[in-house]
């Protein structure tokens, strides 16, 4: 039966017990409001490890002053039911005071990888991500940790952080889970109006257009980006904030495509800012 753990001390005790018994531990950090994308990662972990732990913690350090921290969806009862259905053993559900009993003095910085794309749009966001993930890794000490490719920039940063900080953890990138019409599953999709929800399917269609252009030999980034922007503007009422092509996982902007790439977009609707991407391997 699934258990909710609210303190670091109790989580440490449980993890020590499982480590003593040579159990393998899978971990999925989340901010709750679980959807099928989260559940796919949890199912993978339950299949690959003896024990699966998730965290549900809305991390204030990764929200900017004008972002949706206060209104971010929270539903721990629903999250518990969903996590239980896919074999999760423990939910680490700490309070903000438990995670940050005082203002952090030692800072963790995400560095160059956080200066582009979402990092440029949301200064400090990825510093908050690497801070909380470092803490969670030290609390849970998993063998494997699972992250969705929908946040591909975050995945690249976490992989580099694990390498640079010598965390003995295998990072598993999990493919994006989509609705039937292609929209990437996201906790923020609930903020879309009915009309916006219908329009939002075109975000993935714009990425499919980019894939088609690439498959037919187009290697000029500006040509692909212009085609995507035009498509989104013609088919949605959203404001196109970002369409970009970067190398992956190095996150260096591409002008003439030559290797593995990451095509990403960010579109702002009335109350929801949606991101999506595809990764194309050479």
Overview of the structural elements:
The protein has 282 residues and is an alpha/beta fold. It has two domains: 3-174, HUPs (Rossmann fold), CATH 3.40.50; 187-277, 2-Layer Sandwich (Pantoate--beta-alanine Ligase, Chain: A,domain 2). It is built from nine helices and nine strands. The protein has helices at residues 8-20, 36-48, 76-85, 96-99, 118-121, 125-140, 152-165, 194-215, 221-235, and strands spanning 3-5, 25-30, 51-56, 90-92, 144-148, 170-174, 239-247, 261-268, 273-280. Strands 1-4-3-2-5-6 form a six-stranded parallel beta sheet, sandwiched between helices. It has a three-stranded antiparallel beta sheet with strand order 7-8-9, with helices on one face. The longest helix has 22 residues, at 194-215. The radius of gyration is 19 Å and the shape is globular. The mean pLDDT is 95.
Tell me about the biggest sheet? 6 strands, parallel
What is the helix tally? 9
Using the alpha-carbon principal axes, give the shape. globular
CATH-defined fold name of the largest domain? Rossmann fold
């Amino acid at each position: 039966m699934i258990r909710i753990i609210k303190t670091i001390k109790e989580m440490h005790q449980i993890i020590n017990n499982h480590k003593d018994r040579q159990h393998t531990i899978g971990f999925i950090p989340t901010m709750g409001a679980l959807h099928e994308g989260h559940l796919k990662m949890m199912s993978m972990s339950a299949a690959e490890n003896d024990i699966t732990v998730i965290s549900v913690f809305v991390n204030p350090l990764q929200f900017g002053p004008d972002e949706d921290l206060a209104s971010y969806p929270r539903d721990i009862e629903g999250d518990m039911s969903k996590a239980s259905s896919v074999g999760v053993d423990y939910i680490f559900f700490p309070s903000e005071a438990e995670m940050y009993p005082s203002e952090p003095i030692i800072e963790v910085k995400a560095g160059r990888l956080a200066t582009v794309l979402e990092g440029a749009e949301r200064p400090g966001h990825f510093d908050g991500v690497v801070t909380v993930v470092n803490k969670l890794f030290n609390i849970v000490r998993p063998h494997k940790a699972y992250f969705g490719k929908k946040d591909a920039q975050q995945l690249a940063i976490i992989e580099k952080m694990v390498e640079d900080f010598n965390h003995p953890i295998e990072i598993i990138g999990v493919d994006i889970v989509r609705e039937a019409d292609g929209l990437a599953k996201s906790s923020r999709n609930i903020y879309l109006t009915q009309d916006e929800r219908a329009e939002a399917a075109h975000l993935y269609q714009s990425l499919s257009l980019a894939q088609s252009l690439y498959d037919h030999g187009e290697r000029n980034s500006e040509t692909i980006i212009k085609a995507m922007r035009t498509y989104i503007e013609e088919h949605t009422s959203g404001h196109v904030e970002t369409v970009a092509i970067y190398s992956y996982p190095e996150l260096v902007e591409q002008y003439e495509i030559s290797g593995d790439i990451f095509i990403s977009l960010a579109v702002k609707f009335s109350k929801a800012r949606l991101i999506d991407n595809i990764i194309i391997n050479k």
